[in-house]
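Before a colleague's protein record goes any further, I have to sign it off. I want your independent view on whether this chain really folds as the tokens say. The record follows directly below this note.
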Amino acid sequence: RPEGGNAPLAFYFAGDLVRDYTDFELISAIATMESFQKIYRPEIYNTNSPAGVEYQPSLSYGDYSLTRVVYDRVERGELAVKQGKWTEENFIKPYQDILNEWAANFKVETAA
């Protein structure tokens, strides 16, 4: 977690995070992640006090501030399915050959 942060941020990437992205790109990603996490999981990410040295999240903690953004978790889950289907129909299927070629040439380095 960032120093003084309320919760950890997870980055999933291939390559060298610090060398492959500019400082501006990383700052933008972190700011976006923090904003969305505070909206969608205020009970974890919009707490009023920083996390301790050892992060132990709990949905039962009451030390958080609600956001003024209201959304329906069920509706959001349904929207995710619709977005996935749209992506499949408009991006994956039309460009399947190109994506397969790219994936075949993509080398993933793993730690031994």
